[in-house]
Amino acid sequence: MISSPSSSTQAKGTSSDLFDQSALSDLAQRLVEAAKRAGADAADAVAVRGVSHGVEVRDGRVEESERSEGDDVGLRVLVGQRQAVVSTNDVSGDGVAKLAERAVAMARVAPEDKYVGLADPSLLARDLPDLDLVDPAIPSTAELERRAQEAEAAALGVKGVTKSGGASASAGIGGMVLVTSSGFHGAYLRSSQSISMTAISGEGTTMERDYDYSSAPHAADLYSPERVGRSAGERAVARANPRKVETCQVPVVYDPRVSGSLVGHLVGAINGASIARKTSFLKDKLGAQLFADNIRIIDDPLRRRGLRSQPFDAEGVSVKKLAIIDQGILTSWLLDCATARELGLATTGHAHRGVSSSPSPGPYNLHLEAGAVTPAELISDIKQGFYVTDLIGSGVNGVTGDYSRGASGFWIENGEITYPVSEVTIAGHLLPMFKSMVAASDLEFRYGVNAPTVRIEGLTLGGR
After folding, report:
1. pLDDT by residue (tens digit) across 334-374?
2. Which 8-state DSSP code applies to residue 204?
3. What is the spatial distance between Cα 66 and Cα 52, in angstroms, rounded to a whole number?
4. Between 38 and 94, whose confidence is greater?
5. Would the pLDDT of 37 be above 60?
6. Which residues pair with 417 in a beta bridge?
7. Given CB 3.0 to 4.6 Å as the disulfide criterion, which of 70, 115, 183, 228 pairs with 341?
8. Residue ranges of domains in the chain
9. Are 307 and 370 in contact (CB under 8 A)?
10. CB atoms closer than 10 angstroms to residue 25
11. Which of 122, 79, 41 has the alpha carbon at shortest distance from 346?
């Protein structure tokens, strides 16, 4: 299937046009000014650019090639303590004035919310750092096809791989302009490139599937197509002929591909919105020792070339590196301005926003710092245990902290990874899981959430 640019977007003649946000900045400024003229007490406007291009390959042939381009805008207006948000992708003619008038009319009949409002001007970002987020070389369709085909060929070259589940390569540009009536005007762009491969081993009812991928803002930081494909193939072959295990309680070791999920569960529970609603099992744990004293978990929006890096948050507030867990202690919630006001605290600069929504808190680049032992040392004393490589489902209760995930991976016996295991469930509670966490030394920055190999004690493995 070939998809043309969306009808809401004017064709952009050269690649340099994609990096030019001046028209979006002007539009956002005009929206804010129009909102004030229409009667808003305060307003902010977000303009978002999205450009993506990707190909999918199977058995050496291109199965799908898609390209899309779109610019969308959102306007938030405040009338007293009443708020409304409207969005559009068409502001031709007198669309700016009409959008502003509609937003103000909606705000006037919205319920009052004593916590809404723009960020305090003293918190706004003034000097925006260069985070090197844009690769100016946009890969051609032919280059994306080459990457996908090389990844697939590498996977099929692994002994035991019987089929291709498909390879893909993509590239894109995303960015945001934010203008507020309190004086903030900022913009950033971030490019993205990726390669992925899914490989299948075995035949008939004994087939097993696995994958690998690489994503980065710059092509130079991607793993090579050959490395991605070979890894996918080797993973699929290693899963062949899985066994089942008896229900038991054992140490569980999380592969780096899935260990970041544990960080994700923590961050979901310290989101300011959950804390304000009192729907988090950590609602009373600020300042508490949740982990061993050698555990640090970092959120860093300013990492150069980071997948989720950005120089300011969705309210224009300065962002900074934050140790949300330091020496095992929970140091902070993740807050935007509204949740901070509700909790009687200051925003942590974690506001995120789409064009059709008001700001809400969320993380940036997360990582669990590396420990002192190697992965081999981490499992060396395990007589019987489970090494997780894949997790299934989302059976984690953020209100109670109960944890239950479907999983597959490998059995550990006498300190060695042995045979593949599938169709098991891991169960426990996040508080004792956090307390027993031990991190290995193999941290790599590959994802939006990164963690090394992690060991958790005493989890229940539900088998046959």
Report:
1. 999 999 999 999 999 999 999 999 999 999 999 999 999 99
2. G
3. 8
4. 38
5. yes
6. 412
7. 115
8. 2-228, 242-464
9. no
10. 18
11. 122
Q: Are 158 and 233 in contact (CB under 8 A)?
A: yes
- Under a CB-based contact definition with an 8 Å cutoff, are residues 296 and 371 in contact? no
Look up residue 166 and give its two tokens.
């498909």
The CB density around residue 418, as the number of other CB atoms within 10 Å, is 12
Q: How many other C-beta atoms can be found within 10 angstroms of the C-beta atom of residue 54?
A: 20
Sign of CA dihedral 415, 390, 398, 113: positive
- Contact between 317 and 35 under an 8 Å Cβ cutoff? The reply is no
Cα separation, 136 vs 142, whole angstroms: 17
**Dihedral over Cα of 340, 341, 347, 351: its sign:** positive
Query: Was domain 2-228 assigned CATH 3.30.2290.10?
Result: yes
Q: What is the pLDDT of residues 125-172, one digit of tens each?
A: 999 999 999 999 999 999 999 999 999 999 999 999 999 999 999 999
pLDDT at residue 10 is higher than 80: no
Distance, in Å, from the CA atom of 174 to the CA atom of 190, rounded to the nearest integer, reads 5
Instruction: Quote the tokens at residue 139.
Output: 């890969």
DSSP character string of 381-396: T-SEEEEEEEEES--B
Task: Give me Rg for the CA atoms of the chain.
Answer: 24
Q: What's the rounded Cα separation, in Å, for the pair 171 and 55?
A: 9
Nearest CA-CA partner of 450 in 259, 292, 249, 217:
259
> In what helix (H) or strand (E) does residue 107 lie, and over which residues does it extend?
helix 95-109
Please, which pLDDT band fits residue 6 given cuts at 50, 70 and 90?
very low
- Note the Cα 390 to chain centre separation in Å: 18
Instruction: Give 260's Cβ-side CA count (13 Å radius).
Output: 17
Contact call for residues 50 and 191 (beta carbons, < 8 A): no
